Amino acid sequence: MSDKPEKFIDENGLRLDGRKLDQIRDVKIEVGVLARADGSCYLEFGNNKVMAAVYGPREVHPRHQQESTRAIVRYKYNMASFSVEDRKRPGPDRRSTEVSKVSREALEDQVFTEYFPKSAIDVFVEVLQADAGTRTAALNAASVALADAGIPMRGLVSACAFGKVDDTLVVDLSKDEDNYGQADVPIAMTQDGKITLLQMDGHLTPEELKTGLLMAQEGCRQVYEIQRQALMDHYAKMQDTNKDETEAPSVEEVVTAEENKDSEDVTTEAEEVEEEVAGETDEEKPEIKENAPEEEKEEEETDEKIVEETVEEPDTEEDDSHE
Ligand code: CDP
Question: CATH code at 208?
Fold first, then answer.
């Protein structure tokens, strides 16, 4: 683990990783990456790497969890043992249980659960690489995966933290800022700014909390734009693929085309035979043009006679010699 930095913000007002106070880390989103999930999303938030998979609406197991009037939403956050610097003991622990609970609550209200009574919508998030802010990264991925699964929702949920370092408010804490800072406040919001998750670790004045919320709101808005764009790009790509598929010939069209092709081949073969026969006859026929003038015809006939006579000459000579 790295040591506590002397200063978090330099004289130019930049943070340790060169970001401005209100600048979030780079976000990359890929939608529909898992073939066996109903919806999925791979997301990078700075150095955080998470994978979210959504299954459902589907039957509830165990049955006693089922709700007669709505679907239940289940959320499982898991940190891979290799995702952190010091290997994490595999399996659930108090932290992952807490993160799973608050994340489920952050998403559940956005889902039209009443459309799917007695069923379950399962969200699984695996943290592959952790670098502070994994619960917010996981929520962003889960929200996109739910949309990818076609689950009816009121809107997307976008998440981003703010905190305090060197008595200054900053958005989207880095690892050192999270570990050694004065406060860490992960937030999740709906598109219209309704807060669905707010946790606080550390100390803030009411004023700082208000200002920080506005900073996080702007961060969430930026994340939302990236989520939305990723979904739009994914569906545009899918539409192109579907278009190609619809343009492909149907089975009937293929069969008809094959039949036509066969009959064309037969015609061609017959034609070839005819052409061959016609060709042989043509070779045998003397080349007399039908409309050729009489003189030309006569000349040709005379030429033929001369050839015949020339061929017969040796025979005559031989006969003569015998005599
Ligand atoms: O990840 P998030 O900020 O949502 O949760 P946290 O409990 O504040 O954890 C902050 C960071 O500590 C994580 O992102 C990890 O990088 C690190 N951590 C760790 O190294 N080992 C753990 N068992 C848990 C967290």
Answer: 3.30.230.70
Comparing C-alpha atoms, which of 171, 110, 160 is closest to residue 135? 160
Ligand 1 contacts CB of residue 84 (under 6 A): yes
Q: Please work out whether the CB of residue 15 comes within 6 Å of at least one atom of ligand 1.
A: no
Establish if 273 belongs to a structural domain: no
pLDDT tens readout for residues 57-79: 999 999 999 999 999 999 999 99
List the domain range (segments joined by +) for residue 204. 27-247
- Domain-embedded: residue 42: yes
Quick check: CB of 88 below 6 Å from ligand 1?
yes
User: Is 36 part of a structural domain of the chain?
Assistant: yes
Whether 173 lines ligand 1, by a CB cut-off of 6 Å, is no
Q: Whole-model pTM above 0.90? A: no
pLDDT digits (tens, 9 = 90+) for 120-133: 999 999 999 999 99
Cα 130 off chain centre by: 24
112 lies in some domain = yes
Name the residue with the closest Cα to ligand 1, atom 10: 132
| Opening angle at CA 55, ends 95 and 234, nearest 5 | 105
- Probe residue for ligand 1, chosen from 178, 182, 200 as the CB with the greatest number of ligand atoms within 8 Å: 178
